Amino acid sequence: MGRIDYLHDPDAPPANSVVPSVVAYVENDAGQILMIQRSDNGRWALPGGGHDAGESISDTVVREVWEETGIKAEVVSMSGIYTDPGHVMQYDDGEVRQQFSICFRACPVDGELRTSYETTQVRWVDPADLSKLDIHPTMRLRIEHAMDRARTTPYIG
Fold first, then answer.
1. How confident is the model at residue 3 (pLDDT cuts 50, 70, 90)?
2. Are 25 and 101 in contact (CB under 8 A)?
3. CA 109/CA 122 separation, integer angstroms
4. Cβ(110)–Cβ(152) under 8 Å?
5. Could you tell me the strand order of the sheet in which 96-98 lies?
6. Which of 69, 86, 65, 114 lies closest to 13 in space, CA to CA?
7. For the chain, which residues make up each domain, given as ranges?
8. What is the dihedral angle through the alpha carbons of 156, 9, 92, 82, rounded to the nearest 10 degrees?
9. Could you tell me whether strands 101-111 and 3-7 are parallel, antiparallel, or unpaired per DSSP bridges?
């Protein structure tokens, strides 16, 4: 299913749903960040996805990272909550979702990189190379906040 992201676009369609979701900033011992290339829009992103009924939010993080990358991760902390009503995602099925995303820091504990139906590429990326990737501005913000270890409280916005 395809997806179009709108960010403070006056021509964006109105949201008709809100789905709690997560993204995971997974950093390995070499300081590299786990990144995926999404199959729905071709952009690079942190792994993540929607929260399912019956699971804790940390279980969602672990499941989504595993499903999309083949890496088993352990949640370490939360770096931010993102609910900007000016950021909506339009899907081919008619859903227009207002973002509601919680970003967590995590560390890898096992697994091997692999793709999934949601990812065309999965790789460990050096922070200096992030600028070379096509990353949506809202995802860049999540990455910047997760990288900021000096911040003592999570970003809320």
1. confident
2. no
3. 17
4. no
5. 3-7, 87-91, 96-98, 17-18
6. 86
7. 3-147
8. 0
9. unpaired
Tell which phi-psi region holds residue 31, choosing left (phi > 0), alpha (psi between -120 and 50) or beta: left
CATH of 3-147, one of 2.30.170.40, 3.40.50.300, 3.90.79.10, 1.10.10.10: 3.90.79.10
Q: With a threshold of 0.85, does the pTM exceed it?
A: yes
Q: Which of 46, 56, 58, 45 is nearest to 135 (CA)?
A: 45
DSSP track, the chain = --EEEEES-TTSPPP-EE--EEEEEEB-TTS-EEEEEETTT--EE-SEEEPPTTS-HHHHHHHHHHHHHSEEEEEEEEEEEE--TTEEEEETTS-EEEP-EEEEEEEEEEE----BTTEEEEEEE-GGGGGGS-B-HHHHHHHHHHH-TT--S-EE-
Q: Tens digits of per-residue pLDDT, 65-84? A: 999 999 999 999 999 999 99
For residue range 9-67, list pLDDT tens digits in order: 999 999 999 999 999 999 999 999 999 999 988 999 999 999 999 999 999 999 999 99
| Tokens coding 18 | 């809100």
Question: Is 21:138 a contact under the CB 8 Å cutoff?
Answer: no
